[in-house]
C-alpha cells in the first residue's frame, strides 16, 4: 500500500488504492474484522481525503448492514457509488435505508432502484 501511494502519478495511485479498498471492504463488510481493517487502512492512507472518505462511506455501509443506528443525512450526502452500493448489496439491505433512498436518493436512478428493492426484496441487482 505504501509503495503504491508513493507513486508519482497520484491519481493513478489513489485509484489503485480505491479499487483495493472497494474489493476488500465488500468482502469484509459484515465480518467482525471490518473495524480493525478500516483502522489499519486509515493509518496507511492518512492525509488523503479521497481515501478517508471512501473508508468513511464503507463504514456507513457496514453500520447499515449490521443494523446499527446511522444518520440519514450521511447516506443522502454520500457519494453516488455509496448510495448505489446500499441498494445493490447482495446481503439484506436496511429497509429504512431503502425507504430513505427511494424518496431522497439522487439521481433518479437511485430512487428508482431503491423503490424496486422495496417492492421486490427477494430480487437483487
How does this model look, in words?
With 125 residues, the chain is mostly helical. It folds into 2 domains: 1-70; 72-125, no CATH class. It contains 8 helices and no strands. The protein has helices at residues 2-5, 10-28, 34-44, 49-65, 72-77, 80-88, 95-104, 108-119. The relative contact order is 0.10.
Please tell me the total number of domains.
2
Q: What low-confidence regions span 5 or more consecutive residues with pLDDT below 50?
A: none
What value does the Rg take, in angstroms? Answer: 15 Å
- If you average the pLDDT, what whole number results? 90
Q: State the order of secondary-structure elements, H for helix, E for strand.
A: HHHHHHHH
Largest sheet: none
Beta content = under 5%
- Structural category is mainly alpha
The number of distinct β-strands equals 0
Helical content stands at over 70%
- The CA-CA distance between the termini, in Å, is 31 Å
SS summary, helix count: 8
Shape: elongated
Q: What's the short story on this structure?
A:
The protein is an all-alpha fold and 125 residues long. The protein is 70% helix and 0% strand.
List the helices and strands and how they pair.
Layout: H1 2-5, H2 10-28, H3 34-44, H4 49-65, H5 72-77, H6 80-88, H7 95-104, H8 108-119
Amino acid at each position: 500500500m505504501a509503495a503504491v501511494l508513493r507513486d508519482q502519478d497520484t491519481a493513478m495511485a489513489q485509484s489503485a488504492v480505491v479499487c483495493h479498498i472497494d474489493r476488500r471492504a465488500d468482502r469484509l463488510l459484515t465480518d467482525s474484522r471490518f473495524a480493525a481493517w478500516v483502522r489499519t487502512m486509515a493509518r496507511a492512507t492518512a492525509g488523503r481525503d479521497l481515501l478517508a472518505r471512501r473508508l468513511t462511506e464503507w463504514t456507513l455501509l457496514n453500520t447499515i448492514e449490521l443494523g446499527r443506528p446511522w444518520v440519514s443525512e450521511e447516506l443522502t450526502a454520500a457519494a453516488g457509488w455509496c448510495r448505489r452500493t446500499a441498494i445493490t448489496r447482495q446481503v439484506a439491505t436496511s429497509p429504512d435505508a431503502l425507504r430513505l433512498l427511494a424518496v431522497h436518493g439522487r439521481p433518479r436512478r437511485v430512487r428508482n432502484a431503491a423503490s424496486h428493492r422495496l417492492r421486490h426484496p427477494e430480487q437483487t441487482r
